[in-house]
Amino acid sequence: MINILAVFTGGGIGAVMRYMITLTASKLLGTQYVYAGTFCANIIGCFIIGYIFGMTMNKAVVLSPELKLFLTVGFLGGLTTFSTFSCESFCFLKDGRILQAITYMSASLILGLTATYCGYALAK
């Protein structure tokens, strides 16, 4: 039961954080760049999961199973959103904004992997 509570709580916090990041991006960049919030949340999430992976892989830090579930499945599951990324990419394609779609998808993949590596390297 504690595992379910950990995932539930982490997911709620992560989802609220994603919403706040989206609101902030919209205020700073304008509503036409609403996808920037998803992009930022996904890159931040990649960095955090890389950091957690790096900390725990070498047993430098031991996280309880509940805390690991809270952080990875819960918080990062709520924070990052592949379905939203997919929908936004689809919308770019549907609207004929091919270059923007390719740029968004490529940057998400490249920066996401880079952020994961940076988080991992920092934790080591």
Folded structure, characterized:
It is a single chain. This protein has helices at 2-29, 35-57, 65-79, 82-94, 98-123. By secondary structure, the chain is mainly alpha-helical. The mean pLDDT is 92.
Short description:
With 124 residues, the protein is mostly helical.
Structural class: mainly alpha
* CA-atom Rg in angstroms: 16 Å
Overall average residue pLDDT: 92
Overall number of structural domains: 1
* Strand percentage: under 5%
**Approximate shape:** globular
Strand runs, count = 0
**How would you sum up the major sheet?**
none
Number of helices: 5
Low-confidence stretches: none
> Residue share in helices?
over 70%
Beginning-to-end CA distance, first to last residue: 32 Å
Order of helices and strands: HHHHH
What distinguishing features does this structure have?
85% helix, 0% strand, mainly alpha, globular, 5 helices, 124 residues
Summarize the helices and strands and which ones pair or pack.
Blueprint: H1 2-29, H2 35-57, H3 65-79, H4 82-94, H5 98-123
